[in-house]
Amino acid sequence: MPSFLSALTGSFAQKADENPTVAMVEAAYVAAGLNVRYINCEVAPADLAGAVRGAVAMGWLGFNCSLPHKVAVLEHLDELAPSAAVIGAVNTVVNRDGHLIGENTDGRGFVEAMLTRADPTGSRVLLFGAGGAARAIAVETALAGAAHITVVNRDRGRGQELSDLIASRTPATSDFIAWDHTIAIPSTIDIVINATSIGFHPDVDAHLDLDVDTLRPGMVVADVITNPPTTNLIRAGQARGCITIDGLGMLVNQALVAIKLWTGKDVDGAVMRAVLEDLFGTPA
Ligand code: NDP
Q1: At the N or C end, where does the chain have fewer CB atoms within 10 A?
Q2: How far does the centroid of ligand 1 lie from the alpha carbon of residue 134, in Å?
């Protein structure tokens, strides 16, 4: 069996042994006794085509793509999974004997993490953000059965575009609210999701412009931020009796889905979560 998996990353400088995803996935492989590796390669945008050809030539099972390659890689693939085609971005590529299939496991990872605590079927969702993470989450949450998704975003064009995408390409209905005022969560909302980068280290004190007193007991409050996992939003949800879901669950589950696609094996999510908690701190 080809023995290497890889992450094709963007231009941020980070040593492989300092990359949380590498640490998390490698720990899962070791625990599962799998004879595969996950390595981090920095690839400049101009070298993407060559890197993809190289991965195939070396018989890699596949690779992850991070920014800025998630969209640029599309033109180098042979096939797109249906949800990746709707999202318009790929974070996981699977090499089936030289036939490259693009998948997006970010949104599926989010939904898998949510399903451990709550079922989105028939729910009304309020989603902050309209970037890559928000697109993946919106499409997969809609495909998982959410009835309606309200997109709240600072940039009106991007927010409206995501709302239109949900309404036209998924079974859910959608509307858009421009984020130019403090948002009060309508009483009809069941699930609130932060898919913006607000709260990510080092801006850990940043708050969403949201009236946290409109969060209700029993409402689901989810955040994509991994570092730190206990954001101000998660803390506000906990204080008001909400069901809270932090960003570590999404990160672990997107990898579980990708590893299954690459190797056909289920690995241990608890092993991966323990690695992340070691790096980012145990959630409160
Ligand atoms: P993008 O750059 O594509 O999108 C960023 C989003 O955040 C946009 O909607 C942007 O709004 C919004 N935003 C940023 N700053 C502000 C602000 N000050 N006020 C209001 N809105 C703001 O990033 P991604 O979607 O790729 O990533 C978003 C976050 O998700 C990152 O922190 C990333 O680490 C995390 N993530 C977590 C994953 C996980 O597994 N847990 C997986 C993938 C991502 P606007 O459009 O107006 O600029």
Answers
A1: N
A2: 7
Distance 1 CA to ligand 1 centre (A): 37
The helix or strand, by DSSP H or E, that contains position 40, with its residue range, turns out to be strand 37-42
99 & 113 share domain: no
Pocket lined around ligand 1, Cβ cut-off 6 Å? 106, 129-134, 153-155, 158, 196-198, 200, 224-226, 247, 250-251, 254
Q: What is the mean pLDDT of residues 74-85?
A: 97
Token couple for 155: 């940039």
The 10s digit of each residue's pLDDT in 109-146 is 999 999 999 999 999 999 999 999 999 999 999 999 99
Query: What's the residue count for the chain?
Result: 284
What does pTM read for this prediction?
A: 0.94
* Domain ranges, residue 231: 108-245
Q: Helix, strand, or coil here: 201?
A: coil
Same domain for 238 and 267, yes or no, is no
